[in-house]
Amino acid sequence: MSEDAKSKSSVGIIGAGIQGVCISLCLIKKGFKVTLIDRDEPGKVSASYGNAGHFSPYASVPINRPDILVDVPSMLLSSTGPLALQWNYLPKMIPWFIKFIKNCSKKNMMHTARYMHQILDLALPAYDELFQDIDVSGLVENNGIIYFWTNKDLKSRELENNIRKELGVKQQLLTPHEIHDLEPHIKKIYHGGVLYSNARHARNPKKILLRLFDLFLKKGGHFEKQNVQKISFSSDNKPVIKTNSKFYSFDKAVIACGAFSKKLTDQVGEKIPLDTERGYHVHFKGHDHLLSRPVIFLNRGFGITPMEQGLRVVGTVEFGGLENSISKKRILNLINNAKYLFPELGEHYDEWLGFRPTLPDSLPVMGLSRNHKNLFYSFGHHHLGWTLGAISGKIVAGLIAEENTNLNLSPYSSLRFD
Ligand SMILES: Cc1cc2nc3c(=O)[nH]c(=O)nc-3n(C[C@H](O)[C@H](O)[C@H](O)COP(=O)(O)OP(=O)(O)OC[C@H]3O[C@@H](n4cnc5c(N)ncnc54)[C@H](O)[C@@H]3O)c2cc1C
């Protein structure tokens, strides 16, 4: 696409989470006229606000694994475990579970791992490009991330470590002594661990998102606080976005509404099996000095990140859709787990529920819609949407600008569900 064509071309992005903000910024840098639309102020309540803040370029092994099916029943029954189900949502979830199970073969697991690795490997350089233009001092730490475990379920650890080795992911196995040296305040319940030294973490994901958003506005981008109801198409196939009170016409549009994207993709006639893995956080104010980097206790499937808000305790994969309310049981589970590692913790504050957007093969959807040549998608980045914000922004903006890429993007196409 020529520079002139870009400057005349208008793009509407629906959703101002990390995906929408990064796509908008990449497009405005290329010279497009960009309008970002969200029903809320950017960074207010979305997954992009409340996540664990990990930049995890190593995390290519999906939860779709042959061994997960054996583990699920005991995980669901355990009160300290990471998995939960809101039973009223089970009937709606069954078709998704069936697709998920089909993707747990070794072959499909490796397919996902390979194509997650393809984009995860580019995730940090893509952020570095965006961070050149904003001040992130004090907001991004480069101390790596530690996972640790007890002697239980060691087989799963071996599988993950071997796949990462095969993909060339940098990892350093840790003895209990080494974990203690790195993080001396954690109660010594662990038998082993791993350090991903090239991982980073955000000390305040919301602030980073807002700095990227402010840069987008400074570069001439436009924001509309509107709830999108419907997308229709003009006679020449251009998207027309209808909100509560307005209509907007663009040359091209992008759906980047995270877990809420399905409402819009269903409506444009594409049945994409997007659902949500609900997750929670609580904060313990003033305790961030207890950790130098994020840690994840794998047996209980939760993590703790030192942030500006204090220690952010994050976890749970809960299947329960977008409408069920926050579960006090899951909040209690996080508090108890945090106090198991740090008995000195006092009162928590903030009880947050967020929605990871997840496809049953644990690959995101990025690319053109099946039915409309001027409609693009970027959603479904599940546990890694924060890490993948900048690289997805770069990829989707490149597709809109009709640029060539060396990447194989077909594994991310929505056509895989046909
Ligand atoms: C507990 C938890 C911990 C996590 N930890 C990490 C982590 O450490 N590292 C990592 O990489 N990822 C993590 N994730 C995943 C990551 O947060 C998400 O994948 C990512 O934030 C998704 O970004 P998004 O922009 O696609 O969606 P969102 O952040 O959900 O943003 C979607 C936006 O769309 C807007 N919207 C929706 N519908 C409409 C509509 N109809 N009209 C207008 N606007 C609309 C919403 O208001 C929202 O602002 C975590 C997620 C959770 C829940």
How would you portray this structure in words?
- The chain is an alpha/beta fold and 418 residues long.
- 33% of the residues lie in helices and 25% in strands.
- It contains 13 helices and 21 strands.
- Strands 4, 6, 7, 8, 15, 16, 17, 18 and 19 form a nine-stranded mixed sheet that branches. Strands 10-2-1-14-21-20 form a six-stranded mixed sheet, with helices on both faces.
- The structure holds flavin-adenine dinucleotide.
- The site of flavin-adenine dinucleotide has 40 residues, from helix 2, strand 2, helix 3, strand 15 and strand 19.
What is this entry, summarized?
By secondary structure, this protein is of the alpha/beta class. It contains 13 helices and 21 strands. Strand 11 and strand 12 form a beta hairpin.
Task: Provide tags for this entry.
33% helix; binds flavin-adenine dinucleotide; 9-stranded mixed β-sheet; globular; 418 residues; 13 helices; 6-stranded mixed β-sheet
Topology record:
Elements: H1 3-8, E1 10-14, H2 18-30, E2 33-38, H3 47-50, E3 54-55, H4 68-77, E4 83-85, H5 90-102, H6 106-120, H7 123-131, E5 140-141, E6 145-149, H8 154-167, E7 172-174, H9 176-182, E8 192-196, E9 200-202, H10 205-218, E10 222-225, E11 228-233, E12 239-243, E13 247-249, E14 252-255, H11 261-267, E15 275-284, E16 295-297, E17 302-307, E18 310-319, H12 328-341, E19 349-358, E20 365-368, E21 375-379, H13 389-400
Parallel strand pairs: 1-2, 1-14, 2-10, 4-18, 6-16, 14-21
Antiparallel strand pairs: 3-9, 5-9, 6-8, 7-8, 11-12, 12-13, 15-18, 15-19, 16-17, 17-18, 20-21
Helix pairs in contact: 2-10, 2-13, 7-13
